[in-house]
Amino acid sequence: MQMAGQIGVAPRITEQPTVTVHVADQLLRAGVISHLGRGDVQVLENPDRSAVARPDLSGTVAVVVSDRLDDLTLAELKRLVRGGRRQVLLVAGQLREPELVSVLECGVQNIVWRHQASPQRLAQAVRTAARGDGDLPPDLLGQLLGAVGRGQRGPRRGAPLYLAPREVSVLRLVADGLETRQIAQELSYSERTVKNILHGIMSRMHLTNRAHAVAYALREGYL
């Protein structure tokens, strides 16, 4: 099951997406760049280190590679997301349940397992992120559902439990892997309406993102 979508205006994209690669190991970095090139993805070299003129990074995707999530990686994810100009794709070796919640709370909604990161899979995930949508491995949704079920960083006590029928319809399609545009077409809504519905759910239930909203709806028996 793939999770689709991130709230907000979709960034400008081109047919050939542009990425920045963030990984300490230079051999691993070279391998990731090679994979991305085979997927027809353009890599922008070290834009943050330019002391003269930094390029416009709007619409680019920051690809972060990490075997295990540590404090430095989490800080890097926060920095990239808070920059506000880039979507972030995390290529992870492993993520424990609390780490997954931390990553999602940073605003990262695109994750690929490192052992599944073929050139085609990476290119697909990059294009999904560039559109402003989200993509999670199916097993991570199960982890998130478990975290919500145990009340880890879940909705605040006393939050309203009611979901309107159209909210349930949107969440069901999100859970099925549809992107914002596809949900709008399926329900005959505008894309803005879909985004507003999701934003309303997350604001009212004090949820962090679409994956969290789907897990909440599953736990409460709406899906």
From TrEMBL:
* Pfam families tied to this protein: GerE
Which Gene3D superfamilies has this protein been placed in? 3.40.50.2300
Asked whether the UniProt record includes Ribonucleoprotein among its keywords, one would answer no
Q: Which domain of life is it from?
A: Bacteria
Database matches in InterPro entries: Sig_transdc_resp-reg_C-effctor, Tscrpt_reg_LuxR_C, WalR-like
What SUPFAM superfamilies does its record include? C-terminal effector domain of the bipartite response regulators
Instruction: List the CDD domains.
Output: LuxR_C_like
Q: Which UniProt keywords apply?
A: DNA-binding, Transcription, Transcription regulation
HTH luxR-type domain mapped to chain residues: 156-221
Keyword check for Repeat, yes or no: no
Q: What is this protein called?
A: Response regulator transcription factor
